[in-house]
């Protein structure tokens, strides 16, 4: 048995799924339980790269789709060594969004087909979107806050940023579901996006406290017990 490390937990979801609120509630629960923790938010808008992303998301600047996708990935790589160091020190890392969001949002961008203007095709291939994040620290568990886009649209602040459009969010939800299938523990480890990652779907349409309790029930044994295996890495198929 090796020395124990802390777990890496990622919280994903559509825009306005309650993700930021639930992340804060989970961190508060860890604090009350006396569990050392660190909250990271992606994109990290405090870095030079993050500031470029922030400007783009607020529609204050325009960037090529390939460029912005690579910037999102670079923003995660900026903190990769920090994540591994914190985990080794026994600090549970919680991330509000991570590589799964980067893939889901970029792979959901579409354009009109040149041969059939009435149909749309992806701007960026799914595999291309995955490639820049290969080798990043992989989470031990992803909590995916699932909510229908039409329900999320009714929540306050919807539409303030570039991707908050119902049609886009519907496509993003489909890609997230595909990522969940790729991460499923039912598949052999060699075929999984992140071999050691558990993907848990949380119904984000429920009342806030009920969502928080469901999330805690899923991660409590992980954060209390720690892990002995090395930090997993995201892999190519």
UniProtKB/TrEMBL annotation:
Enzymatic class: transferase
GO BP annotations, alphabetical order: dTDP biosynthetic process; dTTP biosynthetic process; dUDP biosynthetic process
Recorded GO CC terms: cytosol; nucleus
Domain spans labelled Thymidylate kinase-like: 11-180
GO MF annotations, alphabetized: ATP binding; dTMP kinase activity; nucleoside diphosphate kinase activity
Entry EC number(s): 2.7.4.9
Key words, A-Z: ATP-binding, Kinase, Nucleotide biosynthesis, Nucleotide-binding, Transferase
InterPro entries, per the entry: P-loop_NTPase, Thymidylate_kin-like_dom, Thymidylate_kinase
Pathway connected to this protein: Pyrimidine metabolism; dTTP biosynthesis
Family, as annotated: Belongs to the thymidylate kinase family.
HAMAP family assigned: Thymidylate_kinase (MF_00165)
Protein name: Thymidylate kinase
Species of origin: Coprinellus micaceus (Glistening ink-cap mushroom)
